[in-house]
Amino acid sequence: TRAPVPVEITDVPGDRLPEPVEAAAYYLIAEAVTNVAKHAQASHVSVSVRRDDGRVVVDVVDDGVGGADADSGSGLHGLADRVEALHGRLHIDSPRGGGTRIEAQIPVD
Q: Which of 9, 59, 84, 102 has a Cα at 20 to 30 A from 44?
């Protein structure tokens, strides 16, 4: 409710995640929404956290200007490190003019 851009939560798991995975998901979402507010010029963000075949999938999607790049020294590189520390993967799809999708896949037991 405090985000400067409307955020829609489209999916959440029915039960708590393992603490390290839950913390990583929280920080990923917080950083992604902060980046949207600072850089994306978006009018909407959607967030989804769901279990899928032994992993948690976190999606943050905006309708902004795109152009996000984890290799540019931004906070996205730190998010990738956090996800990879849990043996997960972070994928960023952010074509210029086409919005941004950040997806993390983190294994859970």
A: 84
Q: How far apart are CA 46 and CA 85, in angstroms?
A: 25
Structure tokens at 109: 């037991």
Instruction: Give me the pLDDT at residue 74, please.
Output: 62
Predicted local distance difference test score (pLDDT) of residue 69? 80
**Residues 99, 96: Cα–Cα separation, whole Å:** 7
Distance, CA of 8 to chain centre:
13
Amino acid letter, 48: S
Q: Tokens in use for 41?
A: 């010029």
Q: Each residue of 51-61: pLDDT tens digit?
A: 999 999 999 99
The predicted-structure confidence for 34-47, as pLDDT tens digits, reads as follows 999 999 999 999 99
Q: What are 79's strand-pairing partners?
A: none
Smallest CA-to-CA distance from 33 within 21, 43, 45, 24 is with 45
